[in-house]
Description:
By secondary structure, the chain is mainly alpha-helical. The chain has helices at residues 3-19, 29-45.
Amino acid sequence: MENKQRRTLKMAEKLVVSMMAGRDASHDAAHAFKVRDLSLSRAREEGLERHS
């Protein structure tokens, strides 16, 4: 991943944390990141690739 994409990803993650602050643990930022990570893992298992 190139630097511009990494910076964009970090900014998006900060936005998620900011926007989801104060929510209960079932739907907070940590939950959103777990769902993202699980989805990416499943996509790799299925042979799907990310396209830039």
